[in-house]
Amino acid sequence: MSSNMPACASNASSKPQGKAEIGSKPAAQTLVCIGDSITYGMGVADPAHDAWPALLQNKLGDNWNVVNLGVSGTTLLDEGMHPYRATGNVERALALDADMAIIMLGTNDTVDPAWNAEAYRAQLDALANELSEASTHEIRLAFMIPPHSFFGPGETPQRQVMNRLIGGEIRAIIADVATAHDAQLVDLFAFTEGRQAWFPDDLHPNEAGNAAMADYIYDQLFA
Fold first, then answer.
1. pTM to 2 decimals?
2. Residue 217 pLDDT more than 80?
3. Residue 190 contacts residue 162 (beta carbons within 8 Å)
């Protein structure tokens, strides 16, 4: 991504991008991955095979069906410039009646004029409640703190604020909401700190970054 592009990904389609379902065999359990371009796999040439949800599918095997519902450029906040809810993927996630959901939204919220910490907390909590209440069984929830970004002092003021918010308010809010829902928490912000080589455009992980993240997510949630 060039330095004059917006911090969110350039592809802001409201449709699920790439293959929605990774893996073609019937699975005993369904895992939905809710997120933005980092979940979709914007930093790799072949998201259907090299984004972290696809790599997580490989590690989990045929007993799981991992569905990548990441959409580039989306915000958690409904008031944001490209709210995730407007893509229809919340409804898709509910219709799948998943056994597990991984939620990672917030990176694009940090550079959106609509940023509001209390609204972010309320809407993240509401999304978790919605997934739980719609489930015909007890859904397992996992929240992920977004990765570190590597925009430097020469970038726009908005980009400079990313790590302060992700590593501060957003990190604390996600941890609180995870605790309230007795959910698992994966801190990708801490895991990726100092790993700039994984982020050639300063924001999206490349193949090596996605592979490392998939290994870490697997170890934290399934090992």
1. 0.87
2. yes
3. no
Tokens of 56: 């997580």
Contacts 24+ apart (CB under 8 A), 83-91: 84/34, 84/36, 86/14, 87/14, 87/15, 87/16, 88/14, 89/16, 89/34, 90/34, 90/127, 90/130
Q: Residue 152, CB half-sphere, CA atoms under 13 Å: how many? A: 6
Residue with tokens 């992980």: 205
Q: Which residues pair with 93 in a beta bridge?
A: none
CA angle 204–47–106, rounded 5-degree value: 40
Asked if 124 contacts 168 with a C-beta cutoff of 8 angstroms, the reply is no
pLDDT at 162: 87
**CA dist., res. 65 & res. 30, Å (int):** 5
Instruction: Tell me if the domain spanning 21-221 has CATH number 1.10.3810.10.
Output: no
Report the alpha-carbon distance of residue 175 to residue 103 in Å, rounded. 12
Place of tokens 């959106």: 112
Computed from CA positions of residues 173, 31, 84, 47, in that sequence, does the dihedral angle turn out positive or negative?
positive
